[in-house]
Input
Amino acid sequence: MAKIQLDLAHSYKPDPKVDGDYALLPLKMTFEDGGAYALLGPSGCGKTTMLNIMSGLVVPSHGTVLFDGQDMTRATPQQRNIAQVFQFPVIYDTMTVAENLAFPLKNRKVPADQIKQRVGQIAEMLEMSHQLGMGAAGLSADQKQKISLGRGLVRPDVSAVLFDEPLTVIDPHLKWQLRRKLKQIHHELKLTLIYVTHDQVEALTFADQVVVMTRGKVVQIGTPEALFDRPAHTFVGHFIGSPGMNFLPVTVRGDVLEIAGARLPTDAGRHLPDGVLTLGIRPEYLELGAPDAPGAVSVRVLQVQDIGTYWLVSCDASGVPLKLRLAPDVAPPAVGETVGLQLLGENTCFYQNEELLP
Amino acid sequence: MTEKPVNQKAWFLILPVLVCVAFSAILPLMTVVNYSVQDIISPDRRVFVGTEWFAAVMRDQDLHAALWNQLKFSGAVLLVQIPLGIALALAMPASGWKASATLVLVALSLLIPWNVVGTIWQIFARTDIGLMGATLERMGVDYSYTGNATHAWLTVLLMDVWHWTPLVALLAYAGLRSIPDAYYQAARIDGASKFAVFRYIQLPKMRGVLMIAVLLRFMDSFMIYTEPFVLTGGGPGNATTFLSQYLTQKAVGQFDLGPAAAFSLIYFFIILLFCFVLYNWMLRLGQAEKEGGQS
Output
């Protein structure tokens, strides 16, 4: 187990000049020993590159990778003692399940009785004990992926276990089960787990700390709650949540705020710089009110959808689309109706150049 | 459950294929069968002899020698070409212009007509002007592919290796390139040695193409004719007379149509039998591994 520190940038091109040439823009971050992390971002944001740099499959073009303070930038995966699980199942066709699980240990010359014990343990955790003697090639895709997971977890002394979207090929119901398993394994074994995914639910349920990335940049590192309540970047607000955060342009002049044609007093406790800002508010924190209530911004209801566990209401605030999530027991507004929304509250965030204002 | 519609007229749809196959395969084959059970004395005088030709051919000492020679040759071809082809494929670059250049270079010998291959080697092995022959001579080897039976046999084998190993290499290369990168990455993470990567990833993933390579090389080498015919003419003595050449001598040289036809059929069944056995054996091998220990 190790604390992993990254201070690097990576480009697959030989001579990067503009930001777009980088797969990973210069970044500095630390993964604490024993933590459960998720790297979350859309496809192509650099999360797999970051993972491969940590595991040693890719050498960063700039900067260093430290394991417990030791420079490991050019060390092989073996020297780093890293385990990694890939998106698609990788199994050794000619081996049995048990031999597959034992392979990483056997290559490291672990004594046979220890291998046997460890393989038994992992198989039990993954509920594969009854399949140990079977040939691995004949199993289904999700069974094979379980073997891949098992091979990642079988070494007790690894610096970290890296997962590269490991549950993509797994059935939804099994996904829940395996994710819970991973979490449980994390508690039992106290391994450092780093999990790459583009699925926010997966990231938020798995990790203590979520690293949100976009276009080669880390935009926020925080707990799931922090990402939800105080997105540090408009991308985080937009990417996390279903639907994502609402954003509207606002103009601040002294202590007057102009939002969607309405002029409101700025919150006394909050100091905002003059100029054009972006207001962000989660659909969950919007409530319906009368259009003429004090502090309300009037909007027109465009669409009401029944999502089952909530109403999804789409509105138009002078040309800016807004979405609301209403509890199922609330009577939804009628389409075409004009309602009032309280946009300024404790859950309202303000952004300047996409960055959160304190 | 709905009943499947029955349409007997659909049988007529396979008629064109049937006609084509009849003219291209079945009728010629039946002609051979016809010859094999008759003694044709002249075009209008023929006698039915039953299985006499078959019995005669089976007792033929020359045939036994040719068959034994052929089996040794095909066995040696497989033993040399398959491992060598795999080794070549492993050594070939995976991508970039080097890969394209290597592919063209490796495939070059496959583009040469068979009798030209024989001629090339005839010159190559000459002890006066041939590169190989002269070099061996200078090194003190008393080399003569026309005089020494072992030398002749080895030269034919070497020629076949030169001519056909690239086919095995190309097939193995195609198999190697189809292995996803993740396998190699996982092997690195798992700390697998180079040999373990070969044994547990590359070899199992190449099984399909190797099976094709073994079958192709077996069939082709078992029917080899042109190259040894040009190079050694089957000599010295009968050292490089393989089955097809023996057959040609019988059918065209001595015009013994009956025994030649009988032997053609036996030849055909030998190849069929070997391919059947090889194919099933390799298939079984794959399945056994898949089910490994399930019983």
